Amino acid sequence: MSVEQAPVQRADFDQVMVPNYAPAGFIPVRGAGSRVWDQAGRELIDFAGGIAVNVLGHAHPALVAALTEQAQKLWHVSNVFTNEPALRLARKLVDATFADRAFFCNSGAEANEAAFKLARRVAHDRFGPEKNEIIATVNSFHGRTLFTVSVGGQPKYSDGFGPKITGISHVPYNDLEALKAQISDKTCAVVIEPVQGEGGVLPADKAYLQGARELCDKYNALLVFDEVQTGMGRTGELFAYMHYGVTPDILSSAKSLGGGFPIGAMLTTEELAKHLAVGTHGTTYGGNPLACAVGNAVIDIINTPEVLGGVKAKSDRFKARLEKIGQQYGIFSEVRGLGLLLGCVLSEAWKGKAKDVFNAAEKEDLMILQAGPDVVRFAPSLVIEDADIDAGLDRFERAVAKLTQG
């Protein structure tokens, strides 16, 4: 029996929600694959993927089945007990990566919070309280808690909330000399996104990550990779560190890990994990059976040669067409990224106008993203059909044509 729900509209947002977001003017109500429908029944193609989250699109039958099956069994028991889905997912992640141990939480910020706390704890236990400095990169993004936003290299997100967490410094991304100049025996961790996501879809150079690994080894610091946006097949490998052949000590994952169901994970080695002994860190919902059941279904599908190979092919299809559009209309100076995390860098004439491109695309029934004011970002489903890619890019070209031709 369904209870009659009161109708809602976009205007309600401005009445009842904290105004920290400025959502689009329509409300999506249903999704299937890479298509989304709004309240009026308008069909949009989704190239945004819930900001690199809906890794298998909308309402994927395997995820729906995993969630509903688990929902009939067990929702929550807390970490006073463990549960089967959590143990299965941890085993799969450990078997597929460098890690020996997993810690589950509910978001990327929480995964990073755990990673940073672990890094400081390890240094504290092994070398004493002086070794607590964290080096991150300019324009990085690691979450919105006070700790993670302080580590993130974007003052616009961290200013105005009182004293910041100290012992954190920021060096330019992809600049090994700057890292070399900053790192010392007081450094406990170096934190890097293999591709800067919010900072403009900027991939790391292989030599930069290799150099960071060597510096961390030299100074007894831990190398932390924030793979919240790059993980779970997004780059065409299960995690981006595999693409580069550089192994971190700690890795954070979220976004795509649950395909849309909130879950985060911190992965690390047995040696390091020992430092988070009973009582040192925790979370009420972390590793709950619903999230982990969905996560199991996600990794079973994604960690296959078909899907990972498909990401590379779909990436090439996107890139070729985006480069063509960029040249034809003079709107992009570069198309960059890895796999299905792509950024189109706006040309001089269009600098600062990513929001205009977003709005123009929406008018053509296409959902895209921006990564700062100068980069248009695409993070679609990893299993998006080629026909949807082509149709969506047709819509995108129409939007760009209207925008550039006034």
Automatic annotation (TrEMBL):
Modified-residue entries (N6-(pyridoxal phosphate)lysine), positions: 255
UniProt record similarity statement: Belongs to the class-III pyridoxal-phosphate-dependent aminotransferase family. ArgD subfamily.
Keyword field: Amino-acid biosynthesis, Aminotransferase, Arginine biosynthesis, Cytoplasm, Pyridoxal phosphate, Transferase
UniProt keyword Cytoplasm present: yes
Reactions listed under catalytic activity: N(2)-acetyl-L-ornithine + 2-oxoglutarate = N-acetyl-L-glutamate 5-semialdehyde + L-glutamate
Any one GO cellular component localisation term in the record: cytoplasm
PROSITE patterns attached to this UniProt entry: AA_TRANSFER_CLASS_3
Residues reported to bind pyridoxal 5'-phosphate: 108-109, 141, 226-229, 284
The keyword Oxidoreductase is annotated on this UniProt entry: no
EC top class named in words: transferase
Free-text comment on the cofactor: Binds 1 pyridoxal phosphate per subunit.
Cofactor(s) listed: pyridoxal 5'-phosphate
The gene coding this protein: argD
Annotated EC: 2.6.1.11
Assembly and binders: Homodimer.
PANTHER family tied to this protein: AMINOTRANSFERASE CLASS III, SUCCINYLORNITHINE TRANSAMINASE
GO biological process assignments: L-arginine biosynthetic process
One Pfam family from the record: Aminotran_3
Alphabetized GO MF terms: identical protein binding; N2-acetyl-L-ornithine:2-oxoglutarate 5-aminotransferase activity; pyridoxal phosphate binding
Pathway: Amino-acid biosynthesis; L-arginine biosynthesis; N(2)-acetyl-L-ornithine from L-glutamate: step 4/4
Descriptive protein name: Acetylornithine aminotransferase
Subcellular location: Cytoplasm
Residues that coordinate or bind N(2)-acetyl-L-ornithine: 144, 283
